[in-house]
Amino acid sequence: MTVQAAQPDAGSATKLALPASMSIREAVNTRELILAALQESGAILLDLPEDAQVDLSFIQIIEASRRHALSQGGSVALAQPARGSLLSTLERAGLLTEMAAEDQLFWLHRKEAA
Amino acid sequence: MTSLDPIQVFRTEAAELFEQIESGLLDLLNDLSDQDTIDAVFRGLHTLKGSGAMFGFEALAAFTHHCETAFDRVRKGQVPATDELVAAVLDAQDHMKALVSTPQGDHEDASNRLLAALHAAVGGAATTGHVVTPPLPQASAQAAAPASAPAKGQAFHIAFRLPANAMINGTNPLGLLDELRELGECTVKADLSTIPGLGSLEPTDLYIGWSVDLVTEQGRDAIDDVFIFVMDDMDIKVTEVAPVEAKAAEAAPAAKAASPAPEATLQKAEPAKAPGNEPKHGGKQAENVRVPAERLDELMDRVGELVIAQSRLSQLAGSSADLHLRAVSEDVERLSGELRDTMMVLRMVPVGSLFGRFRRLVHDLARETGKVIELETEGETTEVDKTVIERLADPLVHLVRNSIDHGLEPPDERVAAGKDKTGRVILSARQSGGEVIITIKDDGRGINRDRVRAKAESSGLIQPGQMLTDQELLQLIFQPGFSTAAQVTNLSGRGVGMDVVKKTVEALRGVIDVRSENGRGSEISLRIPLTLAIIDGLLVRVGAGSYVIPLSAVEECLELSLEDDLRSRGRSFISLRDNLVPFLRLRELFETGTPPDRYQKMVVISTGDARVGLVVDQIIGDHQTVIKSMSKLHHDVVTFSGATILGDGGVALILDVTHLVAVGQYQEAHLRAAG
Question: Which of B326, B421, B460, B488 could join B411 via S-S bond, C-beta 3.0 to 4.6 A?
Fold first, then answer.
């Protein structure tokens, strides 16, 4: 896991490359990793591998990161819109139902009607 | 921030599941048609499989799957529950434990052998197969797709929140949602409002709740079935919403709303949550906290040191004229006493946790010996210090084995003796004062006293024809190497064990009583102090030394005048409300070499029905006594059970009440015998 320089289009955000597996087994580490990155740099860009496998614990960690960043005046964003396992987990968990605009922007990178 | 190792958490949870499964299986042997028990065993196996798979114990999950499948078929009435099936699953469960403790080991042969037995037990029906992982849903399609036609059935609104530890315990919330979707037209909405900020997040806890609108033809029972494994621990509200057709028609727009269509959702966008407004973890608060036992021991040690420091403070304050210091000292004394009491409660564990394991033992022994045995347990809620529980486990195994192997007769012998063919073993616990009494009772043939005496004489433990009280004779069975079993079996009869039982019980400052009636059975009682750490004591002075008598054993205190003392010399009995009570002059017993005080005191102590008076020079008062073990050099000192540190830094020995009462009773018996 490495903390990389921010993408040009992500402003001053620090890019955080996440591992391919982020299930409950890795939840403690994932939390620590993101928390450390947020403390080091208030704005982070999460880079998930295309084949990343996630479960609900990861969704919760990301939501908690958003709350944390908001309360600290920082920001969290996904480098790519949710896809694969992440998108499937969001759907199965009912997070896409009546999804708020800012959540659509965050998870799906959608700014207007599909 | 520290978090428990998930693998260790799983192992702990698995141990509890094993107990639950085993208990269910043994219950099932009493009534093979008990549907609730069958369901409970199935649930246990299911949870074990799911948790195992989640935490990477693939071999466990794969193996458990076969047992689960077998019980699923029983549950559905496809095959009957039989003794053979229960026995096969019990054996399989032992193997599962090995798969949990040593997942990397070579278990293949054992797995195949046990699965063959399981297969045979369910009549060769399909227990084979592969681990079934929850089907990945067509959820996205179902959840997001608008209903093309009005759904038929009942409409329900389901709001639920699983316990915080659901995920780490192996429950897959997404699997539950998938199952709900399989019931019909379904709209799932997550409630994320209770997710805290990252700093407060317990990453393995579940914070999300759900509300689900479901139209199904399968009725309320189908919904309950989805949650059958977690129903007891979760918050759930299921509401039937509207009549069938009307509601079904409404389901279409509801399903449309499920699609993440920005046009629709932007209108309903909620305002962003205020910065720093991190909601508390909602839902039902956890009612129990799992704490490693070592931490309790550490805390106990600290409380012990606090009590000693408080004792020093009390002594300083007592010799000071400073009223403020005295007030503070009294406050600290009260608080440390309360802390000690709270700590004691924390360490207490119901003895039922110990008794539970004997059901399996008795079951196995019944199979091995061919005896018909019924185990009864009483007083499972009696609480004992956890250390006592841990140390008593092995001695009780020996005693129960002995009862079954030596005590209970084979069925034909019992019938010939006019008894029921089923032998009974009763395991009971009760509290009596500062002791817990654990009794193992059987209705077998009883201890053959003649054989005990003959064996003791032949092995030189006693002289031929030596006079012994009945209790002394029966206590011989606890001598090292003593066995009256004509035949050595796997269970007992090797003479190894009963002496270890006695040593273990004595190390716990306990005592063993034996009662036995020829042809009617035996009863062995272990009387153990409730706690091994801190006790309320009565501090006394004998000569120049201080001693502590456990307050729980003290019945009353009397004054023994010099005249009464002189009058009773040579007899050492005092009449107490028309009862003669023997007493011991501790000054003489301890050979202090000091003259007695003018007004000596007598502390009457008791264990069970036996009483004895202890003559001391002075009663100083009550004393919170932190028990320190005697050194190895003093392990053979029988009059004292330990030592404690006093407020002035001095040491007081703690009297072994059981031993002193026994000495007093022995003295009484011999004086009576001498006329």
Answer: B421
